[in-house]
């Protein structure tokens, strides 16, 4: 079977209405430390990588619609120094190699790992969305990469970017150089915008796996996005709609149901963060943080959902 290395270039969505940005990771909100990262753990053992004081940031918690991510190190079969000798990994604003980042002024770099580096992004819920897609921008520094990535050794460089469905075990590649010499793929020295449709995914997690072993070998990541269409965004004349939207302190319902059974708000991860009293006509949401939410309105046996923005 022929292996497809690149699953897609560019992200275009043409459906009724426009694609809606669900979750992003653009690496723009974190401070920059212009130093090397030193892993203080044993490079002979697999372990999570932590954020060290005054060193480049590797891990970030999720916030509103911004994805979180966490880093993990796995040694070669014959372990090397790993990241213990000080290497360029994590969030950076260094443009000496890339010229400019794909979006904004910061990105995430993986260089001279001397082992395997895995970056796991927050799982995202997609139950309420259709036409879901994921995209990621990648820059591979021009260099002399070794091997075809099939062996867990210093002479077998690789990078793989994929999205998985934790519930179903499905996996879709955006890029996988395993089985190929990176130098032979004509993907170095420029930004690549990789994308893939993810139909049938109830949940999705983006994962980046990298292996390289020299300071002149580097992978840069930027502008990760999940996008899609809200499956219940087209409201009929009989359905309620929250106004105003975006909202700041209070909202009410246009075409309030006569038999309002339940009204509640979920965050982007599906957690219920607010419930309203059904006998009211106006509801206060001052306690919610700014960001994207989903308002659920239930009448008898029917529930519909509206995307709302809290200012």
Residue runs with pLDDT of under 50 for 5 or more positions: 7-18
Estimate the strand proportion. Answer: 35-45%
Could you say which structural class the secondary elements and strand pairing correspond to?
mainly beta
Mean pLDDT: 88
The sequence of SSEs as H and E is EEEEEEEEEEEEEEEEEEEE
> How widely separated are the two ends?
51 Å
How many helices does DSSP assign? Answer: 0
Radius of gyration, in Å, reads 22 Å
Tally of DSSP β-strands: 20
Largest sheet: 7 strands, antiparallel
- Helix % is under 10%
Shape: elongated
Report on this model:
With 311 residues, this protein is mainly β. The strands form four sheets. Strands 2, 3, 6, 7, 9, 10 and 12 form a seven-stranded antiparallel beta sheet that branches. Strands 1, 4, 5, 8, 11 and 13 form a six-stranded antiparallel beta sheet that branches. The chain is built from no helices and 20 strands. About 4% of the residues have low confidence. 33% of the residues are buried.
């Amino acid at each position: 079977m022929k292996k497809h290395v690149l699953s897609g270039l560019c992200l275009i969505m043409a459906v009724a209405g426009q694609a809606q940005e669900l979750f992003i990771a653009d690496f723009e909100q974190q401070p920059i430390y212009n130093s090397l990262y030193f892993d203080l753990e044993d490079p002979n053992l697999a372990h999570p990588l932590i954020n060290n004081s005054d060193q480049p940031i590797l891990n970030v918690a999720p916030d509103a619609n911004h994805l979180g991510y966490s880093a993990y190190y796995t040694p070669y079969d014959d372990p090397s120094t790993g990241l213990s000798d000080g290497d360029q990994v994590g969030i950076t604003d260094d443009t000496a190699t890339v010229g400019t980042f794909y979006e904004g002024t910061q990105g995430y770099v993986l260089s001279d790992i001397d082992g395997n580096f895995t970056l796991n992004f927050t799982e995202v819920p997609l139950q309420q969305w259709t036409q879901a897609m994921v995209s990621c921008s990648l820059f591979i520094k021009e260099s002399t990469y070794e091997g075809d990535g099939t062996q867990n050794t210093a002479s077998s460089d690789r990078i793989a970017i994929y999205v998985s469905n934790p519930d179903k075990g499905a996996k879709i590649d955006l890029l996988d150089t395993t089985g190929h010499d990176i130098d032979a793929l004509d993907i170095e020295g420029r930004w690549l915008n990789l994308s893939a449709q993810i139909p049938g995914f109830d949940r999705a997690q983006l994962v980046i796996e990298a292996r390289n072993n020299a300071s002149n070998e580097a992978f840069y990541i930027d502008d990760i996005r999940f996008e899609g269409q809200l499956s219940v965004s087209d409201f009929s004349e009989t359905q309620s709609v929250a106004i105003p939207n975006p909202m700041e302190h209070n909202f009410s319902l246009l075409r309030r149901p006569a038999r309002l059974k339940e009204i509640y708000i979920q965050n982007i991860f599906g957690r219920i963060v607010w419930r309203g009293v059904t006998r009211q006509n106006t509801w206060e949401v001052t306690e919610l943080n700014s960001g994207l939410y989903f308002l659920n309105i239930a009448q008898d046996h029917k529930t519909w959902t509206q995307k709302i923005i809290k200012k």
